[in-house]
Amino acid sequence: SYVLTQPPSVSVAPGRTASITCGGENIGIGGVHWYQQKPGQAPVQVIYYTSDRPSGIPERFSGSKSGYTATLTISRVEDGDEADYYCQVWDSVVDHRLFGGGTRLTVL
Amino acid sequence: QVRLVESGGGVVQPGTSLRLSCEASGFTFAISGMHWVRQAPGKGLEWVAFISYEEGKNSYADSVRGRFDISRDISKNTLYLQMNSLTVEDAAVYYCARDREGGSLDYWGQGTLVTLSA
User: Fold this and answer.
1) What is the pLDDT of residues B53-66, one digit of tens each?
2) How many CB atoms lie within 10 A of CB A32?
3) Distance in Å, alpha carbon of B105 to nearest chain A alpha carbon
4) Is the CB of residue A99 less than 8 Å away from at least one CB of chain B?
5) Buried (b) or exposed (e) across A43-67, using 16+ Cβ within 10 A?
6) What pLDDT, on the 0 to 100 scale, is given for residue B2?
């Protein structure tokens, strides 16, 4: 089975832009989904179908994909954005879901 | 609003069994796919199992296939995960989540903790 690769950590100053990448050979086929998880809480979906935002998610969160890499971009980063972020894809052949290893976003 | 509430976690011995439940409300459970996802202490998310609203279409991660069984009771709006032959590697917080068309998981419960102890 394939793997989704994320950087373990990303640091950004408040008000700046954070970019979190997710790479894998299956990225180019279907949609990529992103989740935010704060300490002690359940994950929350922040992006689905690569670039769509669920209701209630700020416009500061956006997603994109190029080739075998997807990117979650958080503009005008706030202290409250500090969390772990996970990408996820659907392997429709075997009907499995696969998560990346997660990226810890630290707001400096 | 969509609400998912897990229960059934606890401390169990390796080799034993445990059944987790997830009570759903705020949406039409009968026509929704559902997932179980787990997270070992200090680790990332691991997808465990999926049950489709179409009968007979279940899928499992390789790490649990043959030991875990996902099922649902439409009359009770409840999702289950029967876990057998538990090992220390199964210790985790277990989340249930609703499937969104296209393969993502749009709503998650708060999780239930499974601890393995001899």
Assistant:
1) 887 789 999 999 99
2) 30
3) 7
4) yes
5) bbbbbbbbbebeeebeebbbbebee
6) 96
Does B53 contact chain A (CB < 8 Å)?
A: no
Determine contact: A7 vs chain B, CB below 8 A: no
Q: How many inter-chain contacts (A to B, CB under 8 Å) are there?
A: 74
Radius of gyration of chain B (CA): 13
> Distance between CA B112 and CA B93 in Å, rounded?
5
> Per the CB < 8 Å rule, is B109 touching A42?
yes
B80-115: burial string, b at 16+ Cβ within 10 Å, e else = bbebeebeeebbbbbbbbbbbeebbbbbbbebbebe
Q: Contact A88/A34 with Cβ under 8 angstroms?
A: yes
Residue of B nearest to A103 (CA): B44
Radius of gyration for chain A, computed over Cα atoms and rounded to the nearest angstrom: 13
Tokens of B81: 């995960």
